[in-house]
Amino acid sequence: MDIYRDFARVYDIFMEDVPYSMWCRQITDILKADKINSGIVADLGCGTGELTRRLSSSGYDMIGIDSSYEMLDVALNKDPGKDILYLCQDIREFELYGTCAAIVSRCDTLNYIIDFDDLVKVFKLVNNYLDPNAPFIFDCNSIYKYEHILSDNTFAQSRDEGSFIWENYYDKKRHINNSSLTFFIKEDINSKILYTKSEEVHIQRAYSLDELKNAANEAGLLWRDAYDADDFGTIKEDTQRYLICLYENGKKS
Questions:
Q1: What is the CATH architecture of 6-141+207-248?
Q2: Global pTM exceeds 0.85
Q3: Which CATH architecture best describes the domain 145-205?
Q4: Which residue has the higher pLDDT, 183 or 239?
């Protein structure tokens, strides 16, 4: 089943609490500390472009990459005149014309890479498309979040524009989380207000810090820093999202 298709139409409505502005500040603080004040930055799993647009407004030449045409269509229609290049590509095999001053990825995009070898493949591509010593800044949901926050729990929201039900099942042995999403989206069909139903299944994997370090090492990336993404502080036992900084460190074939 394809994901982020019908969901794309209501994604920004139901995800309005995502702290994109804070994420942008975190990223720009890291980039400016590395004296990266401009240049090309690629956003992997850019979705509807909320973070991409903010980074563009911060002075970076942005490339947004996502495998969902529907999400990119929403992004493109937000700021038609904004100079952002959007590419519909799978991040496991993305292609660029040159290297980047930085690459970023937020909102648990890498948790959707459920095979470790594919994660290494993504990291190798990142390493290939980074300028020398340039950073890769990404986040990842922690094992704690899947085990204690999402595991076997159901969440629901209802708005005028529609509603959704989000059911989770977490396999602790395999560290795999299955999310069943059911949407009811408000539409005007032949002058009648109807709610159309659609369903998606999202599968994610929880990675430990050691697994992420091993993948980075295999790809030739240098592990520099890891933070609690919510407060930009030290990682704790109950940290729900990691923010990790890797750096290009001599490309490996």
A1: 3-Layer(aba) Sandwich (3.40)
A2: yes
A3: Single Sheet (2.20)
A4: 239
Structure tokens at 52: 């991409």
Q: Is residue 78 a contact partner of residue 52, using CB atoms and an 8 Å limit?
A: no
Give residue 27's pLDDT. Answer: 97
Structure tokens given for 24: 């942008």
Q: 56 CB contacts (<8 Å, ≥6 apart)?
A: 62, 82, 83, 84
Residue type, 251: K
Q: Is 127 exposed, middle or buried (0-12, 13-18, 19+ CB in 10 A)?
A: buried
Question: What span, in angstroms and rounded, lies between the C-alpha atoms of 18 and 106?
Answer: 11
192: Cβ contacts below 8 Å, ≥ 6 apart:
none
pLDDT at res. 250: 81
Residue 226 contacts residue 200 (beta carbons within 8 Å)? no
Confidence (pLDDT) at 188: 73
Task: Pull the structure tokens for residue 8.
Answer: 């794309």
Q: Band of the pLDDT at 199, cuts 50, 70, 90?
A: confident
Q: Is 89 helix (H, G, I), strand (E, B) or coil?
A: coil
